[in-house]
């Protein structure tokens, strides 16, 4: 019997390259397992909304009828949307430019002070405040009432310190009591007055509690006789506390009106002017023997200066940009300061040894060397500015909301704030995305080049 020995086939040898491929494959699977939750969230929160918004922009307000590009056409016909585009352009040009400039100046100056860290912390603190809280803060600061708005309180204080203010904005003359009101708001006597006479100018409309503290009774002043070349008079409150008295006559309990400007007028020209004393008395001396009209100028009755309408149609956008600067100046300063700290000091010292002053060093050395950092800060702020919503929505009052609106707020107003047209709102969202993408791509490329 012949025995046939069958030799079993041996398995192929595993090479080192195969082992490396398997290890890499395992590594990719493990990495994918860790990244998968983040990818799912990214897809659910970013990719899907973008795709849905693009698709929704081609349907009508109800979402049931396909309208093609009608929403995009309507978007550029709507005056409110065009105003939002204009305001967004103002934001993009003004806010990042001012912030980058302020951040650069502050970063350079902070380097030269002793308490640099404390100063940086103080400027960076607004970043910890939410846009909602910052909007409420500045809505109160911009209030037009000087008793509430701190900015108008400061403006009114400075104005009154240099120009003064009327003490009798509500004062007026009774009809038929010898005074007539002019077209400019002034009051003048109906009868002519000559030197040697005393005239009484009675006014009403002033509460006794609103009289100046130094006001005195006018009765004694009304009884004084005028000299031959002077014209005397008294301006008084024609009201007796507690009742009684006679209209058009100075009674014992009636007060004079101090600090009231009085003019003597002849042939339409002011011949002399003076200011009433604490008892309301006044006198013009050295007048020739002619007839004069006594006038109380309109400045005595002008309403008090109320300050600046910060949140009016003309200033609402600059006012909101000011609030944005308050929040983000610290951010720009810290980033630029980090770039400034990395600058080669030998170049700065060499320039100083060559006789360059600080302005020349700043303009010709510091700024050019910081150009990459300044560009990144500027583009980052441009992206952030395009998405601004909270400050505009909170600070701008309802009547001027349309004057301050930007693309982000307009998108919300059209979709959910009363417009209920999510087709048009989606088109606005797509427009905003298209405007942001170039800045984002530019920033990503800058980061990649810096890493190389």
From TrEMBL:
Keyword entries, A-Z: Cell membrane, Membrane, Transmembrane, Transmembrane helix, Transport
Keyword Transmembrane listed: yes
Spans through the membrane: 29-51, 89-109, 121-142, 323-344, 365-383, 423-444
PROSITE patterns associated with the record: ABC_TM1
Protein name from the UniProt record: ABC transporter permease subunit
Domain ABC transmembrane type-1: 85-443
Membrane topology of this protein: Multi-pass membrane protein
Family designation: Belongs to the binding-protein-dependent transport system permease family.
Pfam families: BPD_transp_1 (PF00528)
CDD domains: TM_PBP2
SUPFAM superfamilies xref list: Cna protein B-type domain, MalF N-terminal region-like, MetI-like
Gene3D superfamilies for this protein: MetI-like
Record PANTHER family: BLL4140 PROTEIN, DIACETYLCHITOBIOSE UPTAKE SYSTEM PERMEASE PROTEIN DASB
GO cellular component: plasma membrane
First-listed, main subcellular location of the protein, grouped into a coarse class: membrane
């Amino acid at each position: 019997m012949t025995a046939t020995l069958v030799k079993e086939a041996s398995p192929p040898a595993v090479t080192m390259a195969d082992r490396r491929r398997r290890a890499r494959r395992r590594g990719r699977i493990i990495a994918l397992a860790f990244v998968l939750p983040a990818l799912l969230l990214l897809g659910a929160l970013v990719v899907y909304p973008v795709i849905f918004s693009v698709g929704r922009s081609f349907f009508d307000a109800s979402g049931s009828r396909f309208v093609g590009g009608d929403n995009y056409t309507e978007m550029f016909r709507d005056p409110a949307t065009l105003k939002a585009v204009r305001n967004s352009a103002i934001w993009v040009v003004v806010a990042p430019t001012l912030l980058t400039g302020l951040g650069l100046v502050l970063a350079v100056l902070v380097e030269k002070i002793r308490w640099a860290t404390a100063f940086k912390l103080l400027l960076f603190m607004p970043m910890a405040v939410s846009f909602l809280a910052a909007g409420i803060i500045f809505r109160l600061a911009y209030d037009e009432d000087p008793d509430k708005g701190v900015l108008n309180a400061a403006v009114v204080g400075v104005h009154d310190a240099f120009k003064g203010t009327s003490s009798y904005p509500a004062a007026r003359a009774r009809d038929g009591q010898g005074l007539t009101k002019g077209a400019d708001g002034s009051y003048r006597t109906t009868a002519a007055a000559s030197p040697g006479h005393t005239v009484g100018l009675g006014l009403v409309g002033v509460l006794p509690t609103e009289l100046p503290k130094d006001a005195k009774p006018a009765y004694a002043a009304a009884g004084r006789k005028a000299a031959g070349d002077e014209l005397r008079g008294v301006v008084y409150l024609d009201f007796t506390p507690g009742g009684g008295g006679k209209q058009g006559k100075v009674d014992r309990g009636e007060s004079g009106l101090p600090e009231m400007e009085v003019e003597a007028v002849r042939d339409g020209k002011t011949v002399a002017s003076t200011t009433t004393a604490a008892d309301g008395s006044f006198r013009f001396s050295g007048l020739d023997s002619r007839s004069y009209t006594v006038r109380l100028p309109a400045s005595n009755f002008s309403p008090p200066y109320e300050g600046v309408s910060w949140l009016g149609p003309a200033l609402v956008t600059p006012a909101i940009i000011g609030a944005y600067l308050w929040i983000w100046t610290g951010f720009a300063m810290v980033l630029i300061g980090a770039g400034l700290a990395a600058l080669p000091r030998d170049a700065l010292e060499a320039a100083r040894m060559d006789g360059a002053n600080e302005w020349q060093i700043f303009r010709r050395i510091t700024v050019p060397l910081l150009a990459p950092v300044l560009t990144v800060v500027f583009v980052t702020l441009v992206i952030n500015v395009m998405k601004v919503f909270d400050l505009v929505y909170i600070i701008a009052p309802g009547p001027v909301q349309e004057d301050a609106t930007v693309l982000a707020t307009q998108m919300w107003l059209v979709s959910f704030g009363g417009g209920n047209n999510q087709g048009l709102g989606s088109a606005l969202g797509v427009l905003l995305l298209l405007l942001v993408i170039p800045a984002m791509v530019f920033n990503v490329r800058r980061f990649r080049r810096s890493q190389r």
